[in-house]
Here is the input.
Amino acid sequence: MTMLPGYTAVSVSRDRASEVLDIDSWGFAFTSKESDAPRLEEIFEFSRGRGIELTDTTRGPQGSLVAIHTSIPYPMRVPGGATVPTSGLTWVAVHPGHRRQGLLTQMIDDHFARSLARGEAVSTLYAAEPEIYQRFGYGLACPALGLDLGRKPSFREFPGAKDLRIRLENASLDAHAKDVAAVQRRMMRPGTMVEMSEVSMRDLFMDLENWRDGAERFRIAIVEDAQGPAAFAVFHRKQNWEDFASGTTTVRTWGSATGAATHRLMSVLSDMDLMAKTKVSHLAADDPLVNSLVDLRAVKATMGDNLWVRILDVPAALEARTYAADVDISIEVTDKQIHENHKVWRLQVTDGAAQVTPAERDAPAQLRLSIQELSTAYLGGITIAALAQASLVEELVPGAVSRLSVAMRGDELPVSNISF
Here is the structure.
């Protein structure tokens, strides 16, 4: 990778933690308390931390850090129940004094190359500014709902849900990490972070007092069934009095392995004393919670972006998942960043399992799409047919779009419940 003049790429170790936090504060426009610094350092993955240093002394002190990023390694659930090695890009920040220099492009190239070298076939992220990352091939694979359930919404009956045990406790990394990990391993929805790193788990339980904005400390709800922990929610309440109690329960992070556990969890969280609102996010549109509501009009819903996906290794990624129908099709993939992906690929699916190989020389493609569109459709939620209707996929042979769309469609809409 050729660096821009005046800069050099470096690995970032823990002894540069104060510089990392400084660049992060410049990038995201916040100031943290000095006393919080040791805890914030715990949620930066220094073993994979990267940065860009200044070498041109006319622009500032030589060796000063001007941009940072790191990533979270995890197995991500894909259609069919298997997982794919994934690199979750995070902590991306550039000092505003060095914007418009191409540093973000350099960092993305660096991230892609290092992820591929580690055998990670897919990169994911939560986008602070969605339009930026589409330039690098990231596609919105997981749109998601946010719901304000109000107070005690009416749910349809779910046999056995009321019999599930639920615990309400003060959230603690030491006491509850194992419960969260157990639920994540059981969750089968595509997009799920199946195994959480120590850094990811610390981030989930991070509860700095100056982040609370008047709310209480984090609490946790854990639902258990015969197999153990089946659902969890890290939440807090914030009291408000306007003639009468009208507080808000906000679910920060939650996950559920079964519909019964979801029903039990949300029935309890949406019926807290003195609370008038219950806010829940990271919901797929087909989540059991949505389908259990008696009156969908009675809740306030918003749609937003959840997980963005970028395929780094086309054959490895496509072979990691299963397919809903057999297909034998040639796909022309365009990729401006990773030239190894930029070619015509033959996707052969038999009994749900895929084999992906470069098409024979001069073999005609049956459809053409960019790596962004292939990444968007990868987890089985957004269909190839829908992308084609938006003029984002070009059908070169009649029927090709329909055949690939049917094959790639998943049984459940994908979503990620863990932010990073």
Observations:
- Residues 313-408 form a domain with the Nonspecific Lipid-transfer Protein; Chain A fold (CATH 3.30.1050.10).
- The mean pLDDT is 96.
- The two ends are 27 Å apart (CA to CA).
